[in-house]
Every structure is written in C-alpha cells, then in structure tokens.
Design a protein that fits this description.
Blueprint: H1 2-6, H2 8-11, H3 18-27, H4 39-44, E1 47-52, E2 55-61, H5 66-75, E3 77-81, E4 86-91, H6 95-100, E5 114-121, E6 127-137, E7 140-145, H7 150-166, E8 172-176, E9 179-184, H8 188-192, E10 208-214, E11 217-223, E12 232-237, H9 242-250, E13 257-260, H10 262-271, H11 298-303, H12 309-318, E14 322-329, E15 339-342, E16 348-357, E17 364-371, E18 380-385, E19 388-395
Parallel strand pairs: 3-13
Antiparallel strand pairs: 1-2, 3-9, 4-7, 4-8, 5-6, 6-7, 9-12, 10-11, 11-12, 14-17, 14-19, 15-16, 15-18, 16-17, 18-19
Helix pairs in contact: 5-10
Length: 408
C-alpha cells in the first residue's frame, strides 16, 4: 500500500474532490491487485495508483489535479486506460436469444455493428449490472461490463449458457483478454483519425468498426461510446498493441491528448448524469426507479420475457415509489449517503448515491433517490450534511449537455 501514501500531497490541490479518492480506497482495500498492461507506463508517467475493483489503477497523474484533468477532457482530449473492464464474446446462432434472456435490451432490433446500453436484471427486477452489448452480426455479440461485477457476471453468463445448451441451443461465452482504451473529448477525431484505416465520420454514437488497424496495430475494434458525455471512442485491441497505441495518441500533433485517471472519470460521468454501478444502481433498484426505463426495448415490453418483467412493467404502468433524480446545491458538497429532506427539513425523502463539486458549473451536483412527490425539476429540498441542513434543488440531468456524435 506504499503507493497510496505517494499521492496524499496531491489531495491538497483537489481538496473538495478528495473524498472520491478516499471512497475508492475504502471500498477496495483487499490485496493483491491485478495490473493492466499499462501499469508500468502509468507509474513512469506519474500515475497515482490506487486499488479499484481488484485492480491497481491510476486515480490521477502528478502533472494534473482531478479538476484540471476534468476540464482538459471537456476542452481537448483525454486518454483513459479502462482495460480492467470485462470484455466478452457471445457467439452461436442463438446468441441474441441468449442475451435477451438475461437483459432488457432489444438486441434483435439492432443493426449490425450497433450497440446499446442494457441491464442484467434478476427475477425481482433488480439491476445486477449495466453493460454495453454490440451486435456485430446475428451470431456474434461483443459485451463490455463493469470490472467490479466481472466475476459474478461471468459466472452468471456461463451458468445460463450451460442451461441454454442443455435445451439444445447454440451459444458460447468467451472471455477476451484485450486491452481497452477510452479516448474522450472534442479533439478525439483529430488525435485518432490519422491512425485509422476508416473514416470516423462513418462511426456515429453507439456503432462499432471491427477488425480495423489503429496506428498499425491490427485486430482492433473501435466503438463510438464512453463514460464522459463527450464525443469519444473505446478501442479494444490485442494486449501487445496497448502501449504503442497509447504512445501514438499522446504524441498527436493535431490534438492535446493527456492521460486521465479514475478521479476525472468519476466527476465527468457525474456531470453527464451517468450511473455508477454499486453507487447509483444495484440489485435493490429497478430500471424504472433508476430512470433507465428507456433501456427496455419496445418489443421487450410487449413480450415481457426478461427477468423481473412482471415487476418492472407494473412499475412502468403505475409508477415506482421512488425515482433517481439530479440535484444542484451550493456550500459544502453533498455526497453519496447524504439524507434528503423536504424544504422544511422535517420529512425525509430519500438519500444521495453520488455527488461532487462540478468543475464546469461551479456548483455542487449530485444524484439520488427520492419519493415521487419531489422528483420534478425545481423542487426544493434540504441535505443533512454534518448535522446541518443545506439547501438543494432537483435538477434535470445531464448537468452538462452530452456531445455525442449523432448523425441526423
């Protein structure tokens, strides 16, 4: 744990955001930790390594505070090593039927090389994990899911696949040991296009290009997506190509590309109103409560054949007892676990699941679950922070508009 002491001095430069870092450490205190192929590269470039989801990952770099890295991403381009996330190939003529038996998505309705955010649900409608499924072909799906849920997700998929095969269906689950880079920010096309063998303009949001060359590295897959709200891509590549591609992007002459870590990734996703599994969604929350009902395909609502469909569809019709909403506030930051009260401060409405000062807006942003009586934007609330009541207000999300590359 010696690496943890090295960056304590850096926290003074990002004092308001420090609890995000401490939360990562508290929740991931067990050793040993896995390392991505870029571990030594991160350390050599001043990466402050912390335990996260069983991996040793950079939370920030010595030449930038979290705020500076955050703002650089919004203005220029940042490179995130997300190789800790689980990548899986689902193959076989019944691969779509299989994944639809586990998730709420209409995968059948996707075009080839189109992806979607979806949710693993259980029989109670609870969210087991959120993931991105790309339909490469009718018999080949590419799945990216959270590192923190990797073990349970893999067991879940393999167990269900075995049952599927016992019923005569054709499906295989294969864990892919590739590297994964997220290149995010408005200057991403300037940095990446020179190294591609296809035109990025042909790759709108949530589409993918498979088996392409990236800066001379063959066998890559480039997907237009990300976790920041910015125009960006995620590149899956053979492990031996991870450092060469990283170095090529950092040397870009057409964009200001810098390395970024978990700290900026968290504040960026929060400004974008995106959920973090284990904080904002988990097995106790349903897609409807989490304001993720849009992930449930129209056809899936009609067939009602996903896990927990009866409960989830009932909530869609009758409304749930609580809902995830965004908040803005001034003064001391309101963070996950903070209790939310009505404007009088006497009736408890719910609690926050994530929160931080917004580097872009200059106010505090947060999200959490409240009773339906107070979910409308503009509703006045109070947060209980260190035994004091702090004014807050329900706000629309995202807090910062998304800038995804949408082709109209």
């Amino acid at each position: 744990m010696q690496c943890l002491s090295k960056w304590k001095c850096v926290l003074g430069k990002t004092k308001q955001l420090a609890p995000l870092v401490h939360q990562i450490i508290r929740n991931n205190s067990k050793a040993p930790f896995k390392k991505t192929e870029l571990y030594d590269f991160h350390v050599a470039h001043g990466g402050k390594m912390v335990p996260f989801a069983g991996w040793s990952m950079p939370v920030l770099y010595k030449d930038q505070t979290i705020v500076e890295s955050h703002l650089h991403t919004r203005k220029h381009c940042s490179l995130f090593d997300v190789s800790h996330m689980m990548q899986t190939h689902i193959t076989g003529k019944d691969s779509i039927k299989f994944m639809e038996s586990l998730t709420v998505a209409d995968i059948e309705g996707l075009k080839e090389n189109q992806g979607t955010l979806t949710l693993f649900t259980d029989e109670k409608g609870g969210i087991l994990d959120d993931l991105i499924v790309t339909k490469v072909t009718d018999t080949f799906l590419f799945v990216v899911s959270n590192a923190g849920c990797a073990d349970k997700d893999l067991v879940h998929m393999e167990a269900e696949a075995e049952q599927f095969r016992c019923k005569g269906f054709d499906v295989q689950v294969e864990l892919i040991c590739n590297g994964l880079l997220a290149v995010q920010g408005p200057e991403m096309p300037n940095a990446l296009q020179p190294g591609l063998d296809f035109d990025l303009k042909t790759l709108p949001f949530m589409t993918s290009f498979k088996d392409c060359n990236v800066f001379g590295v063959p066998g890559c897959q480039v997907s237009c997506c990300g976790y920041t709200g910015e125009n960006g891509v995620e590149i899956s590549m053979p492990l031996e190509g991870l450092q060469p591609i990283t170095e090529a992007l950092l040397k870009s002459s057409g964009a200001k590309v810098r390395l970024a870590g978990l700290g900026a990734r968290d504040t960026l996703r929060l400004e974008a109103g995106l959920c973090l599994y284990g904080n904002d969604i988990d097995e106790t929350t349903t897609p409807v409560q989490a304001t993720l009902a849009w992930t449930i395909g129209k056809r899936r609502r009609q067939t009602a054949d996903f896990p927990g469909a009866e409960i989830v569809l009932k909530e869609l019709k009758n409304k749930p007892h609580r809902r995830r909403v965004g908040f803005i506030s001034q003064g001391p930051p309101a963070r996950g676990g903070t209790k939310v009260f009505d404007e009088s401060g006497t009736i408890e409405l719910g609690h926050l699941t994530s929160g931080c000062p917004s580097p872009c807006l200059g106010v505090n942003v947060s999200m959490g679950y409240v009773q339906l009586s107070h979910w409308k934007p503009g509703s006045k609330v109070k947060f209980q922070i260190r035994n004091k009541m702090v004014d807050g207000q329900v706000s629309k999300m995202p807090f910062v508009p998304h800038k995804y590359y949408i082709v109209k």
